[in-house]
Amino acid sequence: MKTNQSNCAWIGVWIALLMVNVQGAESPAYRRLSVSEYRDKMKAGWIGQIAGVSWGTPTEFKYRSCTIPDDRMPKWQPGMINDAFVQDDLYVEMTFLRTMEQYGLDCSIRQAGIDFANSRYDLACANNVGRENMRSGIAPPDSGHPNFNRCSTDIDYQIEADFSGLIAPGMPNVPIAMGEKFGRLMNYGDGIYGGQFMGAMVAEAFFEKDIVKIIEAGLKAIPAESQLAEMVRDMLKWSKECPTWLACWQRCEDKYRKGPEYNKAPTALDGVECKINAAYVLMGLLYGKGDLDQTMKIASQCGLDSDCNPSSAGGILFTTIGFSKLPERFTKELNEKTIFSFTAYNVPKLIDGCVKLARQAIVKEGGKIEKNAKGEEVLLIPVKAPMPSKLELAWAPGPIAGSKFTEAEMAQITVPGSAKGMKAALDKVAPGWSIANCNSYMDPGLRPEELGRKNVIATYPKAPDTPCVLSRKVDVPAGKKTTLMLTVGHHPLGDWALVVKADANELLRKPVGNTTATNGWLDVSVDLSEYQGKSILLELLNQPTDWNFENGYWEKISIESK
């Protein structure tokens, strides 16, 4: 009898343990955040970005391998808060938000690529190369792969990833997933991890005020073996050892700016590599000691991308505080009705869009939205350990995916800078001509008026060593004098070389600039009589010179025979 009682007791214990495990599986730990508090902190996160980028813009990339002296830093003025509506590190991330608003949180990476390819703003570095790749048919993730993108560890996604944390309070796996979708449009390896790191810090800032703990949360969201993670660990260590940010800055300079081991991946421009700029964000956060002004000021004074770095630092720190508790100097003159350039958003629409996406993210992550005793909506956010992306190295990349847009997908890419958009524009001015290697920079396409002329085609070379080419097969009649007639122009701040070829033979090379063009325009004629009775391929090259405002303007392209 005692044996049976003992057995029953043990069975009871096991049943109890089983119930605990089942209940634990069914009832995960939650963090709680009212919708009103989420909205307040998320709005502050946007204001932090806006303030940081506005404050640092005057010094952007003017200080390389040196810090910005105190007397060269602009003084914050409340009206500066409205200077950010034209900033790329804001409207680019809003492009990603818009894609998710239109197609849902689970929109495909290919749809994200199509929407990014259709953007109309100027871009540089990895963003520009990635977008050009997609406009030429290379779909993500290959658009950001080092085999196709020479700038894959540049700062681009790092400065555009704040949105991924602002729609994911306390959910680090959402910024990780967003990096795998939107970050791969233009970046690879550390270039993606930089964005995931920033996004995860913003996500943690909804619940944590301790800067070190916020940074540690971001660190857990990226591969521990990556160089970016090594930099973060260094910054946490050095900030304890160096009494001033200037001393810490020098350690960063020596290792991550000058060290060849940490600069093996190519970059588009000096100073745009992600690790060193991320270090400057951390410099501001760690040495700013929670002070809004000092955090952004130090992040800016580190130099290089001195507007984007304080924007990232400001976005994180402001989120910890909430809009309602921000000092008036950052809020009182904000014009909430102004539309951010190239977007559908003003501040209220931006906040509403983020709330909508956050609701989707919370439910997808296994969370809930309930009402408390006061009838207020409360977000129940599940506590989950971050699952970082796999380690990849831009200087030793893995295989490409072989991803290409389909013909139907290419038909959706219709901006003027795309091949289809440029061909449609060209047909209005010079029917029968084709175009290749036109960059989207400086808004190429049909201009109703340019430099006093009507219906002008604007082109821009693909790269410093790759001209934009207009081409056409021409049957040159026998017994007639045939002449190619061109009227071409240049941007007031730049010049370019006009090259004319027939069957790859160079017939003319002429500079188009202030010294050769009258009021920006140059008339050119090329005799084709030597090709009488032949069919030839004519090519007109917008050949770059010093890669500075290399726009080619084409008012007239005609072939006349007499």
Give an overview of the whole structure.
There is one protein chain. This protein has 562 residues and is an alpha+beta fold. It has two domains: 30-382, ADP-ribosylglycohydrolase fold (Orthogonal Bundle), CATH 1.10.4080; 414-561, Jelly Rolls, CATH 2.60.120.200. It has 18 helices and 13 strands. The protein has helices at residues 2-26, 35-56, 88-103, 109-117, 125-135, 156-160, 162-166, 173-181, 190-204, 211-219, 227-241, 245-257, 274-288, 292-301, 308-321, 347-364, 407-410, 419-429, and strands at residues 30-34, 368-371, 377-382, 434-436, 445-450, 453-459, 468-475, 482-490, 496-502, 505-512, 521-527, 535-543, 552-561. It has a five-stranded antiparallel β-sheet. Strands 5-6-13-8-11 form a five-stranded antiparallel β-sheet. Helix 2 crosses helix 16. It is elongated and about 90 Å long. Residues 1-26 have low confidence and may be disordered.
What keyword list fits this structure?
562 residues; alpha+beta; ADP-ribosylglycohydrolase fold; Jelly Rolls; 2 domains; five-stranded antiparallel sheet; 18 helices; 13 strands
Characterize this entry briefly.
The protein has about 550 residues and is α+β, with helices and mostly antiparallel strands.
The strand count comes to: 13
Total separate domains = 2
Beta-strand content = 15-25%
Please state the CA-atom Rg, rounded to the nearest Å: 28 Å
Q: How are strands sequenced across the largest beta sheet?
A: 4-7-12-9-10
CATH superfamily of the largest domain: ADP-ribosylation/Crystallin J1
Q: Which structural class should the secondary elements be placed in?
A: alpha+beta
Can you tell me the CATH class of the largest domain?
Mainly Alpha
Q: Ranges with pLDDT <50 over ≥5 residues?
A: 1-26
Number of helices: 18
Main sheet overview: 5 strands, antiparallel
